[in-house]
Amino acid sequence: HRRYLDTFRGREAVTPDGHRILVCANIGAPKDLEAVLGADADGIGLFRSEFLYLGRDNYPPEEDQYQAYRQVLEAMDGRMVVIRTLDIGADKQADYFQLPKEENPAMGLRAIRICLTRPEVFRTQLRALYRASAHGKLGIMFPMITSVSEVKRIKEMCAQVRAELKAEGVPFDEHAELGIMIETPAAAVISDLLAREVDFFSIGTNDLTQYTLAVDRQNAQVEPFCDRHHEALLRLIRTTVENAHKAGIWAGICGELAADTTLTDFFMEVGVDELSMTPGAILETKAKILDR
Ligand code: PEP
Ligand code: MG
């Protein structure tokens, strides 16, 4: 089977109706690059930036973040790298954030909500990201979005950071794409409105499943109630991709469902532009798209 999969190495995943699907990698730290480079990834569709914030006793400085992002962009050598801003809270905790104890952390102060509540923390990350954008093809992605007003606030902060860097004479890519994760039912349902505000969508099926089906992703007891192919999820995915395309932006999937090859035909039919997954699953997905 390994030899069969290797025959798809280096090939573009083009569907029978001629649509190129980027098959990208999810990573959690620069140390994962080796696996990505060996896996024939078309890019990085999700770089979870939490590793920079976890396992330490204070906020990571801009310079450390810049170096980590730059390293990944340079290694990918012009291929797209989507870096997701801080998605802490819920299952991922860091003491120095001094987040209040919550009854229901998955629905609590997490991810973009922390960034909007603590603009200085967010600004530091945005500065590091924009500085790194001078070294490759960067997409900046925001998690846990539920409303248009959040996206507008985020875009204002991005514009401020760009203006600051420009005034300081620091190089960055003016065209670095800004995208959002579609991982709440609210975001999927208003994806027509959100699509006017951003350059891309990436569907986070792990959280989208949890919130749509009301099944805690951390609770093994409700696992039997977690139907990952639930029609509600498939409809939300279809709606999101259709609304993206109507607005002329691209849409990918970066949750675990992206690597589910029993759904690859569905993703192709819907017109998904990118699938991002653990590096080890990439060739299997390329084979599924190409071998017919
Ligand atoms: C998701 O929710 O599908 C996702 C990709 O993000 P995470 O698994 O990091 O929450
Ligand atoms: Mg998520």
Automatic annotation (TrEMBL):
Kindly list the cofactors needed: Mg(2+)
Question: A single GO molecular function, which one?
Answer: phosphoenolpyruvate-protein phosphotransferase activity
Which residue intervals define the domain PEP-utilising enzyme C-terminal in the entry? 8-289
**Location within or outside the cell:** Cytoplasm
Reaction equations catalysed: L-histidyl-[protein] + phosphoenolpyruvate = N(pros)-phospho-L-histidyl-[protein] + pyruvate
Give the highest taxon in the source lineage: Bacteria
Enzyme's top EC category: transferase
State if Heme is listed as a keyword. Answer: no
Its primary localisation, in coarse terms, equals: cytoplasm
Keyword field: Cytoplasm, Kinase, Magnesium, Metal-binding, Phosphotransferase system, Sugar transport, Transferase, Transport
**This enzyme's EC code(s):** 2.7.3.9
* Protein family: Belongs to the PEP-utilizing enzyme family.
Function summary: General (non sugar-specific) component of the phosphoenolpyruvate-dependent sugar phosphotransferase system (sugar PTS). This major carbohydrate active-transport system catalyzes the phosphorylation of incoming sugar substrates concomitantly with their translocation across the cell membrane. Enzyme I transfers the phosphoryl group from phosphoenolpyruvate (PEP) to the phosphoryl carrier protein (HPr).
**Annotated protein name in UniProt:** Phosphoenolpyruvate-protein phosphotransferase
Species source reads Pseudoflavonifractor intestinihominis
